[in-house]
């Protein structure tokens, strides 16, 4: 499926969307902006520049995360948080990861021993300018079994998760490797999952190494073949973080609305899809800028992995 | 031992922080300065420690010819040499909350005299002067690690009597407060700044003692007065404030090699 079709079909205005920390589906986020989706809630333990751009693009009115910003300082966004255009609920990386896990497990809440002793739990801070969850944000209790204090976090079931991975097959089985942040639980918690992949491979290739599969295809609504789909962020084994692009192009966006509009006109709305975006990148910065990002340094498995079994059980 | 004669206080902070790592055990590195300091420690002083991050790297072993320290904790270079890579529920759940971490390393925008940290807002949470990026995993590391080191440049606006918002509890408001909040004791905690190394006045993880920050050592050629002048409360001094050994040529040259883009140590600051 194309990114255009996947986002048009599976992302609705008003949805809660996971757009997380590592394995970032940047190309799919660009497409969300391109289609001018509205009133989205972005969730993820830490959400970086992909969230910044979707907020500045007018797609987002709520954020539930432990971190918002990344390499882009949220200057303009701070104003939006103060004047109510962007509502927010502050959690933490562990908090969101556990909430996604609870959503994946189908349980209503999950206890943590984090947040105890912090100002997050002070009653006077429950009503802050961004608040939208009220008493649904969390609760404190003592364990009925041993009396230990815990904080209860509500399960998080995003309407849709957008994720980027190394490879997938046409059935939606996804191979992902390298550190995963909170993405693994987003794959299981979201009602709909859209995956962009560097490579689409035969199903036999996925099934020959099933321990590397992060989610089975029956959980996945759409697979999009999107080389460089994580750019300007990184994906293990393919390419690294593009700090040069940040410095030369993207960092400007938080300076002013006009600076964002100029960036979006060139890099989002001015290109029809992610392939055109990369072609434009090549025109502006040259093939050598792309070559410098290619992940060539580091290990490959030294030993083969076999999933072999005996054809008989000593019975034949 | 050949000492470096050309170094900044920010570099000395990283060097002093690296020296303070335990010689063994599991360490969980937060965003920012903890990463480069941890890699420096692992390569120079504490080869036995198992470096982990909340994004999902476990027992990261940097190659001797590593081209840089990880830039942040999401950097895919952490997949190169880790014994296991996994996810955040494993790292902040099974590893940290499950009780498998010995030493957490953090940085923040503000620290106060009880070692509480603020990563979220400057000013009143309900009407902030400035929003910061946010806490990431800082909160749970501060809540749950049995011992914490905090690294941050020493300035009056950062070393404040009371953090504007306590995202990450140290001793909260004094003796017994961690236990009352439902947390385990913690310590011996340390803070390393661009002036020196601080401990806390408690011998039992925050149950007794004043639990206030105490200046224990200053960098070479600096005095306790410098620490006081860049601290927003009346600083307690150890009976004898030691002077730390200056950085060696080896420490500074490795630190610079690990930070080729000056991501961690910005020239001209501190």
Q: If you had to describe this structure to a student in words, what would you say it looks like?
A:
The complex is a heterodimer of chains A (316) and B (270). By secondary structure, chain A is of the alpha/beta class. Chain A has helices at residues 3-10, 26-34, 49-56, 75-82, 93-105, 183-189, 203-207, 243-248, 257-267, 274-285, 287-291; strands at 16-18, 40-47, 60-68, 87-90, 109-112, 139-142, 149-154, 160-168, 174-175, 192-200, 213-215, 222-225. Chain A has one domain (1-111, 157-293): Glutaconate Coenzyme A-transferase, CATH 3.40.1080. In chain A, the strands form 2 sheets. In chain A, strands 1, 2, 3, 4, 8, 9, 10, 11 and 12 form a 9-stranded mixed beta sheet that branches. A 3-stranded antiparallel beta sheet of chain A has the order 5-7-6, covered by helices on one side. In chain A, a hairpin with a 6-residue loop joins strand 6 (139-142) and strand 7 (149-154). The mean pLDDT of chain A is 95. Chain B has a single domain, classed as Glutaconate Coenzyme A-transferase (3-Layer(aba) Sandwich), CATH 3.40.1080.10. Chains A and B meet through strand 3, helix 4, helix 5 and helix 6 of A and helix 3, strand 9, helix 4 and helix 5 of B.
């Amino acid at each position: 499926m194309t990114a255009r079709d996947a986002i048009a079909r599976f992302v609705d205005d008003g949805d809660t969307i996971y757009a997380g920390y590592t394995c970032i589906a940047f190309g799919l986020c660009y497409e969300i902006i391109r289609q001018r989706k509205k009133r989205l809630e972005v969730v993820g333990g830490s959400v970086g520049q992909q969230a910044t751009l979707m907020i500045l693009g007018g797609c987002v009115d709520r954020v539930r995360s432990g971190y918002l910003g990344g390499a882009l300082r949220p200057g303009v966004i701070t104003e939006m948080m103060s004047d109510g255009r962007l509502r927010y609920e502050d959690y933490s990386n562990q908090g969101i990861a556990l909430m996604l896990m609870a959503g994946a497990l189908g349980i209503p809440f999950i206890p943590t021993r984090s947040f105890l002793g912090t100002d997050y739990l002070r009653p006077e801070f429950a009503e802050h300018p961004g608040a939208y969850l009220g008493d649904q944000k969390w609760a404190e209790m003592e364990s009925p079994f041993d009396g230990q204090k815990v904080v209860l976090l509500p399960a998080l079931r995003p309407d849709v998760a957008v994720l980027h991975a190394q490879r997938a097959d046409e059935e939606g089985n996804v191979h992902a490797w390298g550190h995963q942040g909170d993405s693994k639980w987003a794959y299981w918690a979201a009602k709909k999952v859209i995956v962009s992949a560097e490579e689409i491979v035969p199903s036999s290739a996925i099934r020959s190494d099933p321990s590397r599969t992060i989610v089975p295809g029956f959980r996945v609504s759409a697979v999009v073949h999107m080389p460089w789909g994580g750019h300007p962020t990184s994906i293990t084994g393919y390419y690294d973080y593009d700090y040069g692009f940040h410095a030369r192009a993207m960092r400007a966006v938080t300076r002013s609305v006009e600076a964002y509009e100029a960036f979006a006109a060139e890099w989002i709305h001015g290109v029809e899809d992610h392939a055109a975006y990369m072609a434009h990148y090549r025109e502006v910065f040259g093939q050598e800028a792309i070559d410098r990002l290619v992940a060539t340094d580091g290990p490959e498995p030294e030993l083969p992995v076999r999933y072999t079994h005996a054809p008989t059980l000593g019975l034949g | 031992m050949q000492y470096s004669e050309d170094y900044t206080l920010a570099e000395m902070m990283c060097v002093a922080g690296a020296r303070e790592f335990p010689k063994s055990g599991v360490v969980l590195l937060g965003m920012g300065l903890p990463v480069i300091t941890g890699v420096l420690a692992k390569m120079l002083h504490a080869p036995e420690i198992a470096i982990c991050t909340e994004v999902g790297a476990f027992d990261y072993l940097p190659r001797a010819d590593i081209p840089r320290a990880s830039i942040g904790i999401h950097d895919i270079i952490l997949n190169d040499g880790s014994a296991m890579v996994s996810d955040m529920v494993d790292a902040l759940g099974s590893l940290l909350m499950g009780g498998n971490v010995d030493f957490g390393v953090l940085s923040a925008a503000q620290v106060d005299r009880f070692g509480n940290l603020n990563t979220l807002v400057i000013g009143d949470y309900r009407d902030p002067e400035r929003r910061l990026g946010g806490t990431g995993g800082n909160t749970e590391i501060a809540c749950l690690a049995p011992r914490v080191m905090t690294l941050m440049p020493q300035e009056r606006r950062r070393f404040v009597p009371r953090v504007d918002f306590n995202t990450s509890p140290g001793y909260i408001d004094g003796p017994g407060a961690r236990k009352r909040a439902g947390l385990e004791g913690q310590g011996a905690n340390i803070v390393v700044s661009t002036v020196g190394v601080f401990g806390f006045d408690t011998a039992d993880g925050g149950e007794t003692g004043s639990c206030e920050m105490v200046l224990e050592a200053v960098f070479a050629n600096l005095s306790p007065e410098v620490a006081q002048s860049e601290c927003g409360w009346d600083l307690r001094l150890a009976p004898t404030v030691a002077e730390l050994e200056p950085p060696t040529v080896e420490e500074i040259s490795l630190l610079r090699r690990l930070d080729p883009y000056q991501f961690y140590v910005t020239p001209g600051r501190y």
